[in-house]
Design goal:
Layout (H helix, E strand, L loop, with lengths): L8 H10 L8 H72 L4 H11 L5 E8 L21 E8 L1 H13 L4 E10 L7 H12 L2 H4 L4 E9 L23
Antiparallel strand pairs: 1-2, 2-4, 3-4
Length: about 240
């Protein structure tokens, strides 16, 4: 199809006089485009530089705060060591307190529960059990967990010794009472022979008991619970029958 120019004649003549656009007329647009790209590149560089500088500033502040905190920690280190020493001493005191035993109460109750016809010649008490020997046989009895008291004394006959054992078991905190021996001393003309025979069984204490029996007993107490204050009282209960 043949193209038709619909422009008025005046416009047609003006277009012919101007002629076609030359390639040099597009250089301005190219220059503007390059300038815009350059501006964007400069703007991106500036923003990146500002961000990097800001991060460096924050890093400097963090490093300064870290140095300040390290100085504070170094200044407080003696207090930390003091707190550790305090805790160690508290632990030591707590351990000692956990193994305490009210020996004053033991002596007071022992004086109250013993019958008047009985007497004590020796008392050997241990707050903690002795460690077992390395070569102890496997069948040996286990050592008591709590305090123990070795008691030697005199009582009137075997019945009197039995009464003493019952009274000892009635004391506060007693776990068990074991009789070691009960030696009867002969009276009259055989007193010397009786003392000699009893010396083999019960030691020299038998000769000191006269006509009474000499005995040896072991009193085992329960291990005191941690943080439990010792119980104190003015009198032993009447059920103990102390001093009768």
């Amino acid at each position: 199809m043949r193209p038709v120019n619909l422009l008025p004649n005046a416009d047609r003549q003006r277009e012919r006089a101007r002629g076609p656009a030359s390639p040099g007329d597009n250089r301005g647009y190219v220059a503007l485009g390059l300038l815009g790209v350059l501006v964007l590149a400069v703007l991106g560089f500036v923003l990146t530089s500002n961000s990097a500088n800001s991060k460096k500033t924050e890093l400097g502040k963090v490093q300064a705060e870290t140095a300040s905190l390290q100085q504070q920690v170094a200044a407080l280190e003696p207090y930390q060591r003091f707190a550790e020493i305090k805790q160690t001493r508290l632990t030591s005191v707590s351990t000692l307190a956990a193994g305490r035993f009210d020996w004053e109460r033991l002596m007071r109750e022992l004086a109250l529960v013993l019958p008047k016809s009985a007497s004590i010649s020796s008392l050997d008490a241990l707050a903690a059990p002795k460690p077992e020997a390395a070569g102890a046989p496997a069948g040996a009895s286990a050592a008591p967990a709590g305090p123990t008291a070795q008691i030697a004394g005199c009582a009137r006959g075997h019945r009197g010794v039995a009464t003493v054992l019952v009274r000892l078991r009635s004391m506060s905190g007693v776990d068990d009472v074991k009789l070691g021996n009960s030696t009867e001393t002969e009276s009259g003309s055989a007193a010397g022979a009786g003392a000699s025979s009893s010396s083999a069984g019960g030691g020299e204490a038998a000769g000191d008991c006269g006509k009474d029996n000499s005995f040896e007993a072991t009193v085992q107490f329960t291990a005191p619970a941690p943080d439990s204050p010792p119980r104190r009282g003015a009198k032993v209960p009447a059920s103990l029958g102390g001093g009768k």
